[in-house]
Amino acid sequence: MNWDKTSSNHPQITEELIQTVEHRMQIRFPADYRTIIKENNGARPINQTIQVGTQNEGFDKLMSLHPSDDDYLLIHWEMLQQHHELPRHYVPIAIDSFGNYFCFDFQQDNPSIVFYDQNFELIDPKAIQHVSDSFTQLVEKLQP
Known about the structure:
Layout: E1 3-4, H1 15-25, H2 31-40, E2 44-45, E3 49-52, E4 55-58, E5 61-62, H3 73-84, E6 90-95, E7 101-105, E8 112-116, E9 128-132, H4 135-141
Antiparallel strand pairs: 1-2, 3-4, 5-6, 6-7, 7-8, 8-9
InterPro entries: Knr4/Smi1-like_dom, Knr4/Smi1-like_sf
Protein name: SMI1-KNR4 cell-wall
């Protein structure tokens, strides 16, 4: 997968920054995500369309793991818990162009990826939909 780093001005991510975020959320990111985020913090994928349920959704960009960025993952994670009552095991890792989120679902040791559409109430099955079993699978599903 190719990533467009020219569209963002995000600093490179260090192992220390990743560990800070993980410690705060009490999780451990999968190795495939850690590898990609170190090289592509806040970047946009070249292929930006993915099937979610029966809809095609746009994958805009990865959330940043740097605290000085507007799209800092921890800020969005806390906001989703406080204002949307999204359970803490959902960790936003990417956003679409409408402000919806692709999230890790840390209910299991190997987190899957879900899409959180904030236009629906959490009790609606359309609010949180399974996208892939892993981050690698998510990236492989992205289409032009």
